[in-house]
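Project outcomes to date are best conveyed with an example. Our students and postdoctoral researchers have been running inverse folding experiments weekly, and each run begins with a structure described purely in tokens. The record below, which covers 132 residues, was selected by the lab manager from last quarter's runs and is presented without edits.
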């Protein structure tokens, strides 16, 4: 016998069905990156911070340093892979979002910008990708 779904369950299921495969792949990449960074000793502060003009995939704590992490996944190295997909415009949006976050928390913590680049099955962690 199948369990009866509530209206709330049905709405959630429809929302999941409407998510694009690209967005689901992005969510999986973010979760993979989160686990990778946690195994390296970083602690999650916030996931998917967004503001007008930018967003940050993961905000992590690495000792005294606040780390703003961009997660990029590409199925292959064609066209430069995940690293090449972080354009100067994307970097500006990351810096903007980080500034909004820091102002909202009234924080003056030391911070850096990292990239988790996933190309196929390979994960590369690049630290200090933006010198702000």
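After processing, the design step wrote out the following sequence:
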């Amino acid at each position: 016998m199948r369990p009866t779904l509530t209206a709330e369950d049905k709405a959630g299921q429809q929302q999941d069905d409407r998510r694009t495969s690209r967005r689901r792949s992005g969510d999986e990449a973010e979760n993979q990156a989160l686990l990778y960074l946690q195994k390296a000793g970083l602690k999650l502060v916030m996931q998917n911070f967004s503001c007008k003009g930018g967003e940050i995939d993961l905000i992590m704590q690495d000792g005294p340093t606040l780390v703003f992490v961009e997660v990029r996944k590409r199925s292959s190295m064609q066209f430069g892979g995940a690293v090449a997909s972080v354009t100067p415009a994307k970097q500006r949006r990351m810096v903007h979002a980080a500034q909004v976050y820091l102002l909202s928390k009234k924080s003056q913590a030391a911070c850096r910008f990292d990239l988790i680049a996933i190309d196929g099955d390979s994960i590369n962690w690049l630290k200090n990708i933006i010198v702000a």
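The chain has one domain: 7-126. The radius of gyration is 17 Å. The training component of this project remains on track.
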